[in-house]
Amino acid sequence: MGDEKTGGLVVIWITIVVGMVLAVVPMPQFAPVELGFLRPDWVAMVLVYWIIALPHRVGILTAWLAGIVVDVLLGSLIGQHALSYVLIAYVAASLYQRLRMFSVWQQASILFALLGVNELVGFWIESIAGLKNWSLWYLLPALSGAFLWPWVFLILRFLRRGVGMT
């Protein structure tokens, strides 16, 4: 029983680390700069999936730890991603039973709202620090994340069922 729980946590953290890698991989040289605005917050998407799927294993503490690591990786203000991930983790954990009942596309619309809040909290923190000015480009990662959600959901569900996590 203990090995199954430990193995499950390892898989969860590996997927979160893969999300972090996707967050820091540079765009190809031939890609236009504007394409970078479409990069979704992979870590937030992975966290939301695991909170919906296994709320007894992934929660606010996991979101906070992942957020601190993302802050260090991206060189952002320490606590910026941690705060936004804790906020969306709290909302996802509060609604996980309802979210499980929704279709994948309905979940994508809720994810759009969660990722939008994530982006707005990041903008809010950066604007307080005097680093950014408002632009509608901030909401594009939330939109691309919502469109990618069905595939992220299916891949992570396949992985979770393949490992035998419940």
Please specify the SSE layout and strand pairing:
Elements: H1 2-24, H2 42-53, H3 60-74, H4 80-101, H5 104-128, H6 140-163
Helix pairs in contact: 1-2, 1-3, 2-4, 2-6, 3-4, 4-5, 5-6
Structural write-up:
By secondary structure, the chain is an all-alpha fold. It has one domain. The protein is 73% helix and 0% strand. The protein contains six helices and no strands. The longest helix has 25 residues, at 104-128. The radius of gyration is 16 Å and the shape is globular.
Q: For the residues shown, what is the average pLDDT?
A: 90
Which ranges are low-confidence, i.e. pLDDT below 50, for 5 or more consecutive residues? none
Largest sheet at a glance?
none
The DSSP helix count reads 6
Total count of strands: 0
In whole angstroms, the N-to-C terminal distance is 12 Å
Total count of domains: 1
User: Which radius of gyration do the C-alpha atoms yield?
Assistant: 16 Å
As a percent range, the share of strand residues is under 5%
Structural class: mainly alpha
Order of helix and strand elements from N to C terminus: HHHHHH
Share of residues in helices: over 70%
Principal-axis shape equals: globular
